[in-house]
Design goal:
Blueprint: H1 25-28, H2 48-71, H3 80-83
Length: 89
């Protein structure tokens, strides 16, 4: 039986998700192909459908990096002992 108290998150046990996580929806937009399935405008002879997907790759990477950097400080304790809650001694 463990006598150590259980640790809870300051917001009452639930993690609050940041507004930065909404940026992760931007890369998913490129998966909805019927929205941008057009031939015009062309860029260097390449149809809109293709160059829009190529532009979506760095935009998705940028959104992921921004969300990672904005949320890495709010992840909570990084010590393994602090993460263990129900260990037996």
């Amino acid at each position: 039986m463990s006598t150590s108290p259980r640790r809870t998150h300051p917001s009452g046990g639930r993690r609050r998700r940041g507004m930065w996580n909404l940026l992760l929806l931007v890369p998913l937009f490129t998966l909805i192909t019927p929205i941008f399935n057009y031939d015009q405008p062309r860029l260097g002879g390449m149809p809109f459908f293709y160059w829009f997907q190529f532009v979506g790759i760095p935009v998705g990477v940028l959104c992921t990096v921004v969300v990672y950097r904005a949320s890495r400080g709010s992840a909570g304790p990084r010590d393994v002992d602090a993460l263990e809650e129900g260990t037996r001694r």
